[in-house]
Amino acid sequence: MTISKAVRIVEVGPRDGLQNIKEPVPTSVKLELIQRLRGTGLRTIELTSVVSPKAIPQLADCRDVLGNESIRRLQGQPGLRLPVLVPNIKGLDIAIEHGVKEVAVFISATEGFSKANINCTVQQGIERAKAVAEKAVESGIAVRGYVSCIFADPFDGPTEPSAVLHCVQKLLNMGCYEVSLGDTLGVGSPDKVRSLLHYLVDHDIPLDKMAGHFHDTYGQAVANVWEAYNCGVRVFDSSVGGLGGCPYAPGAKGNVATEDLLYMFQSAGIDTGVDLMKLVETGVWISRRLSKTNASRAGTALAIKQGLIPSKRSSRTATKKPISWTTIKDTTGLLAYSSGVNLKPILNRPKKGNARTSSPGSSKTPQTTPLSPDSSSRGEDGSSAQAWISARALHL
């Protein structure tokens, strides 16, 4: 079978990217973010999650998001996937009421995270996901699956590949058209990615049904995506501006930035179907609205290059205050000024030409000279002045 070079990006910023932010994000900002993301050409955007407000306060407005007229219009666009994460049958029913056409279910490959995240064992989590998936399929709704902690659990340590395989098989068997492999802690490396994917293939898991979901805790996410791509994976989850993090995974950082993935793939001549510069603009916009630093390195570099944000150097130059110099010594033939720990000696021999005059015999003072020449400071040779400078420097 010939594997396509093109990739599909699943933008998870509106859900996974925002869920860990403590300050409430206005619903209007979430809606505008979704519209901006769609405007970049993204074909899959995860909208929100129908969860308890007590569990994830940031997503308490899920009904308002799903019920908005702009979202309902997007739901009718052909070729556009707008999955909604649902933890149980109640959440699925709410999603169905709002015309959702695709949902996502999730399970953990490890017991510790499963208990912390959804307060149940791995097996109980599988049973819950199965109940949601089966009802969704019966209702004509597509189902996407997530497996968390594919490399390590924040409570249990390293994850066995067999545990990941078990979860993937269960999700595929319950009707998921695609399973996203989540490095929830961001501890993966290219070698680990390659090893796990080879293990799954050796156990008859088709990579065209797999997706990669890598967090960037140790700066390995882009490298992990590239390794997964070279192994045959063609779908990757990412978040604009590198937003993200998991409230139940201590230490986990944000998702791999969508801008970084687009830059990498487009530089390699691989089609993503997304307008990189429009996405960069969206990353700048949402980072400003959230008062957060843009975590995308490619996005930040391109934004500076296009003048969307000032560079650190230009910002320092713009805010640089003029230095105020104070006379601390006036010897014959030498003036000395200080500004904090800085010392500036100026030789004052106007008849012979020096730094304080534009030419020999001239009394014109350059703009950089803080004080006018003192005619009384003439006559002594430079050697004594130099000796004074050296003595002064030893005490700074």
UniProtKB/TrEMBL annotation:
The protein's Enzyme Commission number: 4.1.3.4
Family annotation (InterPro entries): Aldolase_TIM (IPR013785), HMGL (IPR043594), PYR_CT (IPR000891)
Q: Where is the composition biased (Polar residues)?
A: 355-376
Catalytic activity line of the entry: (3S)-3-hydroxy-3-methylglutaryl-CoA = acetoacetate + acetyl-CoA
Domain spans labelled Pyruvate carboxyltransferase: 7-280
| Residue ranges, annotated region (Disordered) | 346-386
Molecular function in Gene Ontology: hydroxymethylglutaryl-CoA lyase activity; metal ion binding
Which GO annotations describe the biological process of this protein?
ketone body biosynthetic process; L-leucine catabolic process
**Biological or metabolic pathway of the protein:** Metabolic intermediate metabolism; (S)-3-hydroxy-3-methylglutaryl-CoA degradation; acetoacetate from (S)-3-hydroxy-3-methylglutaryl-CoA: step 1/1
Q: Which PROSITE patterns match?
A: PYR_CT (PS50991)
Q: Fetch the Pfam families from UniProt.
A: HMGL-like
Keywords from UniProt, A to Z, are: Lyase, Metal-binding
Q: Which family does the record assign?
A: Belongs to the HMG-CoA lyase family.
| Identification of the protein by name | hydroxymethylglutaryl-CoA lyase
Q: What organism does this protein naturally occur in? A: Aspergillus thermomutatus (Neosartorya pseudofischeri)
